[in-house]
Specification:
The structure is a homodimer. The first copy, chain A, is an alpha/beta fold. Chain A is built from 10 helices and 13 strands. In chain A, the strands form 3 sheets. An 8-stranded parallel β-barrel of chain A has the order 3-4-5-6-8-9-10-13, surrounded by 6 helices. A two-stranded antiparallel ribbon of chain A has the order 1-2. Chain A has a two-stranded antiparallel sheet with strand order 11-12. In chain A, helix 4 links the parallel strand 5 and strand 6. The longest helix of chain A has 18 residues.
Chain lengths: ~300, ~300
C-alpha cells in the first residue's frame, strides 16, 4: 500500500495550486459550525431571529406546542390567545412564562388579535394583556364594520387606528397590523395599504408583514421589506403556490415565493425582529412539514451571509 | 385616506434612488421560484441532485419508504438490500422499479453492500444485481478478514479491490467505497484511505464520501470534495455533533459540519451525482428530523448559487 503521508503531500500541493483551502490536518475546529447560546448551530450572520407564529399550532395545546418547539430548537413564539387567554391574570401569565422558559421558549409578541372599533374596552384589555406579559409588540387586525353591497364587512378604520396610535405611545408597545391578502380586500390586503394608514401615526404603528398574503395579493415581499422596513415589527414566514387568491400554503422550499430574496432583503435593511413561521395546512399533524420549513429557513440563514 | 397611487409613486422613486429592485407592479412572475420537471421548486443552480440513502429507512418497508419520499418530493434512492434483496429475479426487480416510478422515485445506485474477499461468488452476484437493476454505481465496503491483536477484524483488501476493478470494467459499473470513520479503523476510515487504494485502479473505482464519518475521523469534508472529486461517485449527507469518534448523528442544521462549505465545494468541482441523506437516529420515527434535514439542504441548494 502506498505511503499515505506522501500521498497527502502531493494532494495538498495540488489543492494549494488550485487556490483551495488546505485540509484541516490535526484540527477541524475552523470548519465547524458554531453553536449559539440559544442552542442552535449557525454559520451565517443574519441580524434576525427564527420564531413560530402560535397559529401554526392552533390545534395543539400549549404543552404540545412547547414540546414541538423544543424538538425543533425554536426559541421564539408569537403567543395566540388560545394558548394564553386575554383575560389571564398576572399569576396565570407568570405560570405560562415559566412553562415557556422551561422549554427554552420566549413569548416575544402576542396575536394576531382582531379588534373592533365598536369595542374599545376589548382594545384596552388587549394592551393590558400585552403589558402583563411584557411583550413589546401586539400583532393586530383593527377593523370597523361597514355595509358594502348590502353585506356587513370588516373594513379598515382610520378612527380606530388613531386611537391605537395613542395606546401605543401610552403603553410603549408597538402595534403590528397583519395583512391578509385578497381574502379580506377591505382590511389591509397588503403592506402598501398598512403603510398608507400608519405613515402619519405614531412610529409605533406598523406591520406584521405576512409574506404569503403579500404574494397572494400579487405583490413582491422582498420589495415590501426594502420599502417599509422602518415599520416592520414582525414577519410571518410562509410560502404559497400562486401569486393570486388561489395561492395555497406550501412547505417553504416548495412554493413560489423567492425566499432567498426575502432573506437578502432582511439582511440588507438590518431587520432585527423575528421571522415567525405561520404554516397553515395539516394543522393536526404538521410535524414533518413544519420541520421541513424550519430546516429550509435555517439553510437560508446559514448560507445567505456565510 | 391617502391616494395609494401617489403613495406608490413616491415609494418607487425612493426605492430606485436606493438602488433597489422596483416592486413587481402587475406581475410577480420574475420573483417566483421555478418548479423543476421533477416537482420541486428551486432557485439555485447546483449541478447535483438531492437523494436518500436507503439506510435512513431500514426500519421501514419499501411502501413506507416510498410514501415518505413522495411526501418530501425526494426523487432519488440508493437501494439497500433489505428493500430489494440481492437474489431478486429480473421480474422482482422490474416490479420494484415500477413501484418506485409510481412514487416519482428512481433507484440510482445500490448499497452499501459489504463484500468479503473470501466470497467472490457473492461479489459477482452483487454486480449481476446492479446490472439487473440498471444502476451505474455500487456503494460497497470491500474487506478481508485478518487477525490483529488476537482478534479477527475486517481489513482493507488490495487483492479484492484489484478484482473489483476488473469487474467495474467488465460490467461498466462504478464501485464507490464507503468510508466509515474511526469505528472501523482498518477498513477505509476516510476518503484519503480510499484514494490511496483506488488511485492506480480503474477510474471506475472510487468512493461514496460519507461526510459524517469523514468529519468524525477529524478530516475536512469540503477539502475531500475539492481534492478527490474525480473519484467521488456518491455522497452520504449527514451532520454530527463532534469531529471525533464521539460524534453522533444530528439533524443537518444542528451539527458541527459546515455544510455551506460542502455545497460550495460540490458546486466548485461540478459534482453532478447525488447527495443522499443518511440520517442515523430515531429510525422508527424520523419523519420530522428527516424533513428538517431535507429542508435545510434545499435551503443551501437554493441559496449558495442563487
Amino acid at each position: 500500500m502506498m505511503n499515505r503521508r506522501s500521498f497527502f503531500g502531493v494532494s495538498s500541493l495540488a489543492l494549494l495550486a488550485a487556490g483551495c483551502q488546505t485540509p484541516c490536518g490535526g484540527k477541524c475546529e475552523s470548519v465547524a459550525a458554531k453553536r449559539r447560546p440559544d442552542g442552535v448551530y449557525t454559520l451565517g450572520k443574519v441580524p434576525f431571529k427564527l420564531g413560530m407564529a402560535g397559529f401554526t399550532y392552533h390545534k395543539f395545546n400549549i404543552d404540545q406546542t412547547l414540546a414541538a418547539l423544543k424538538k425543533l430548537e425554536v426559541h421564539y413564539l408569537c403567543i395566540k390567545d388560545f394558548h394564553l387567554p386575554i383575560k389571564s391574570t398576572q399569576a396565570e401569565v407568570d405560570a405560562f412564562k415559566r412553562k415557556c422558559a422551561d422549554h427554552g421558549v420566549t413569548g416575544y409578541a402576542v396575536g394576531p388579535i382582531y379588534m373592533d372599533a365598536a369595542n374599545m374596552d376589548f382594545v384596552k384589555e388587549a394592551f393590558d394583556y400585552a403589558a402583563r406579559i411584557g411583550v413589546k409588540t401586539i400583532v393586530g387586525v383593527p377593523f370597523e364594520k361597514r355595509e358594502i353591497g348590502g353585506k356587513s364587512v370588516r373594513h379598515e378604520s382610520r378612527t380606530l387606528c388613531e386611537k391605537l396610535s395613542g395606546f401605543c405611545d401610552e403603553y410603549k408597545i408597538n402595534y403590528a397590523i397583519h395583512n391578509h391578502g385578497p381574502d379580506i380586500p377591505y382590511l389591509f390586503p397588503n403592506a402598501e395599504s398598512i403603510m398608507a394608514m400608519v405613515k402619519d401615526l405614531s412610529p409605533r404603528m406598523g406591520m406584521c408583514l405576512d409574506i404569503g398574503h403579500q404574494f397572494r395579493d400579487n405583490k413582491d415581499p422582498a420589495a415590501a421589506i426594502r420599502n417599509f422596513h422602518s415599520r416592520i415589527f414582525d414577519l410571518h414566514l410562509k410560502n404559497v403556490s400562486d401569486n393570486s387568491k388561489a395561492g395555497r400554503a406550501e412547505p417553504l422550499p416548495r412554493g413560489r415565493i423567492d425566499l432567498v430574496e426575502v432573506v437578502r432583503a432582511l439582511c440588507d435593511v438590518g431587520y432585527a425582529g423575528c421571522c415567525s413561521l405561520e404554516f397553515e395546512r395539516n394543522f393536526t399533524d404538521n410535524y414533518a412539514e413544519v420541520a421541513e420549513c424550519i430546516g429550509y429557513f435555517r439553510g437560508l440563514m446559514d448560507s445567505v451571509r456565510a
